[in-house]
Amino acid sequence: MRCRVVMLAVAATSVAAAQGPADGGAAAESPAARATAQLTDARIAAIAVTANKVDIEAGRLAMRKSKSVAVKNFASDMISEHTSANKQAVALAQRLGFSPEENDFSRSLAQGGQDNLEHLKPLTGREFDLAYAEHEVVYHQQVLGALDDKLIRSAQNAELKSLLQSVREMVKAHLGHAEEMYESLPK
């Protein structure tokens, strides 16, 4: 279960970065915590866009590697729905007059996505399907936690907050679908 250990570590690090230090002390802050402690709408947009890209890339890999109809259907949905969410986020940012601003948290998400792809690439068959499905469960838990704990609350613009709330519902549905997919796969 290396995937679970790797993704739980990435999830814990990323969510902790989004929430900031537990003691509130500036001396203990990591760069990611400092970046997300002062979340601007531009930084939130970058985090959302990156989170979507990570899932799109994992879905594309699953479409190429998996032979499971359930996994391919899920991956296709992830590609389609996260691509749509990204288009909405970028269009909103443009309409509001800012560009998504890369930050330590968005870079951490991107690195976690790359690490996951590197872990998944050599896997085949059932081993790939289980690792991909498990990643999707953990990743959607991570994103849902970040949305609930920091991103929605930190959004200043009402339209961005509304978009994040609708994306939250999509992520929650994806989590349920990922859990069902994982449970249905032969172990």
Query: How much strand content do the residues show?
Result: under 5%
The largest sheet, given as strand count, sense and whether it forms a barrel, is: none
CATH class: Mainly Alpha
* Helix-strand pattern: HHHHHHH
Mean pLDDT: 86
pLDDT < 50 stretches: 1-29
**How many beta-strand runs?**
0
Helix amount, in percent? Answer: over 70%
CATH superfamily: Ferritin, core subunit, four-helix bundle
CATH topological fold name: Ferritin
CATH architecture: Up-down Bundle
Oligomeric state of the chains present here = single chain
Class inferred from helices and paired strands: mainly alpha
Description:
Helices cover 81% and strands 0% of the residues. By secondary structure, it is mostly helical. The protein has one domain: Ferritin, core subunit, four-helix bundle (Ferritin). It starts with a helix and ends with a helix. The N terminus is likely disordered.
